[in-house]
Amino acid sequence: MTGARTDVTSDALLASILTSLENDKAEDIVQIDLRGKSSIGDYMIVCSGRSSRQVTAIAEKLVERLKDEFGIPVRTEGKETGDWVLIDTGDVVVHVFRPEVREFYQLEKMWLPNHPASDQARG
C-alpha cells in the first residue's frame, strides 16, 4: 500500500491485530476496552510470547502486517530486548511480554480490576 488509509476504524485495527496475534501463537491474549476510560487509545491488548525471540517475532510480524494492510505509521518500543514490546497504532496499543515480565507489571490489574491477575495480586 502506498499511502496511509484515513478510514481505518479502531474496530478494524483490533480485529486485524487479534488475528495476527493468534496466527503467531501469542498466548493469554487479553483485550481491554479503553473507550471512555483513557485518552491513550480505544483498546489495549496484552499478550505473551514464550521467549524473547518469540516476543520480538510476534511484534515484528504484527507491525509488518499493519503497515501492509492499513499503511499506517506504527510506533514500537522494546524490540531490542524482547522482554516487553509496546506497539502503538494510535487507536490500539499492544503490549507483548515474556511471561515473567508480564507477571511482574500486571497491566491487566490496573485496567481490569476483576481480572484473575488482580485476584492473584491480592491473595
Automatic annotation (TrEMBL):
Pfam families on file: RsfS
Any one of the GO BP annotations: cytosolic ribosome assembly
Keywords: Cytoplasm, Repressor, Translation regulation
GO CC annotation terms, alphabetical: cytoplasm
Gene Ontology molecular function, alphabetical: ribosomal large subunit binding
Coiled coil segments of this chain: none
Record's function text: Functions as a ribosomal silencing factor. Interacts with ribosomal protein uL14 (rplN), blocking formation of intersubunit bridge B8. Prevents association of the 30S and 50S ribosomal subunits and the formation of functional ribosomes, thus repressing translation.
Name recorded for this polypeptide: Ribosomal silencing factor RsfS
